Amino acid sequence: TRLFQDSESNIKGFYDRQEKLIGLMRGKADASTVIHEVGHLARESLIGTEQGEALNEYYGTDGDNWTVAQEETFARHFERYMRDGKPPEGASEKLKQAFKAVAEVMRRIYFKLRGSPLYGGVPDEVSEVFDQIMLAGDRALNSNPNSEQINVTTFNEIAKENGDPVLASQTMLN
Question: DSSP secondary structure string, 81-113?
Fold first, then answer.
């Protein structure tokens, strides 16, 4: 099953559950597309966990069989969470910097979308799960001195230089 950001006629990106693949459409995708599709991947990785159960309860799902509407609502909540730029309490300085950088890019995109369904907040119950995920990843990266970490300053420089956060993401990951 593929989950699409936007309608199928105006696809910006998608997440393929079978292949665990995120696809971005050149010329249409932006940083919010990347965050949105990563949200789908993150939600799926929580299946069978305490956090996954909390999400099932909040979104009113029967087990882990989510509808497309529930998946898309969750992914929009993840976008909003990242747009808000509020790192969880206890976050490292690097995670705080990452939140600030991503929020800056997301706010520029959201500014253009005023009045869209992407505006709004993140429910507290969902925000708590996002905080737990971010803190767990933060601790894992910081406990391994050999782990590779994305340089947030470089991401911002590349994004500003060419005006394309998706290209910046691809450049940083290569």
Answer: HHHHT-PPTT--HHHHHHHHHHHHHHHHHHHHT
